[in-house]
Amino acid sequence: MSHPYLSSVIDLVRQAGEAILPHWRSELDVQNKTDESPVTVADMAAHQVLLDGLLALDSAIPVLSEEDCEVPLSERAGWTRWWLVDPLDGTKEFIAGSEEFTVNVALIEAGKVRFGVVGLPASGRCYYGGEDFGAWRSEVSGATQPLRVRQEPEEAFTVVASRRHSSPAQEQLLSRLGERFGELALANVGSSLKFCLLAEGAADCYPRLAPTSQWDTAAAQGVLEGAGGEVLDVSGAALRYDARESYLNPSFLALPRGVDWRDWLIELANRE
User: Fold this and answer.
1) Does residue 114 register a pLDDT over 90?
2) Together in a domain, 138 and 201
3) Alpha-carbon distance 198 to 253, whole Å?
4) DSSP 3-state assignment of 221?
5) Whole-angstrom distance, CA of residue 219 vs CA of residue 21
């Protein structure tokens, strides 16, 4: 089972990546947005590819992009489905010359991720999936591999963390995870690749008790849910994308569905 728009969106994500690559590891004019986050000509080039392509695919589905998000809540509240887009997730990694930047596109229906596509322009790799469809990793060669979370650590319990963003609460949670599971292996990767590591069974948990925006997480959440994982807020409810004034997500926990330490982790995330 798949979605009729999925293959077209994978193609669009790869096209957006091709629009980014000429600017990678080159002299860049970096601007700062009102929230002080950086934006480059590469962000805007990918944005335009995705905006034009998604509207051509179905003009009835609105597009909410990080680079064009000044849409009043009164308008968004009437949407039943929409595209949630980050044309270049990991702009700081991109500016630094790292390969850890992605193109993210998710289809949202009634506040829930229907499917997501995460593309890695530097390699041409794509991750894609949704809870009802499964999840896959595809290479630029056309080789495709189904993805599945792991239920048990292979050796050390592996936690995915952000290179650039943490918080005292997150550091405390990592310390308590270590008390339960022993010395942790930390996988420090940028952008949406954190979720993708879980989806392909290379890590066990991604706690994020620090700010993220909706376009940072939605596409990769679709991949993880398709691979048998889940993304929860700290109350234990699934992370949702209902229209609200702020685009910031609450703190969340990404983990394999059905693990016996799920409730313990939720309790841990709520401790002062």
Assistant:
1) yes
2) no
3) 12
4) helix
5) 21
Q: How are strands ordered across the β-sheet holding 229-233?
A: 206-208, 252-256, 229-233
Q: What residue type is assigned to position 114 of the chain?
A: R
Q: Supply the CATH number for residue 137's domain.
A: 3.30.540.10
The count of residues in the chain is 272
Q: How far apart are CA 232 and CA 259, in angstroms?
A: 13
In the structure encoding, which two tokens stand for residue 215, read together? 């376009």
The answer to whether the CB of 150 falls within 8 A of the CB of 135 is no
Structure tokens at 235: 């109350």
Count of structural domains within the chain: 2
Q: How far is CA 167 from CA 21, 46, 161, 190, 210, in A?
A: 32, 31, 11, 16, 6
Tens of pLDDT along 120-152? 999 999 999 999 999 999 998 999 999 999 999
Is the pLDDT assigned to residue 23 strictly greater than 80?
Answer: yes
Domain that holds residue 103: 6-146
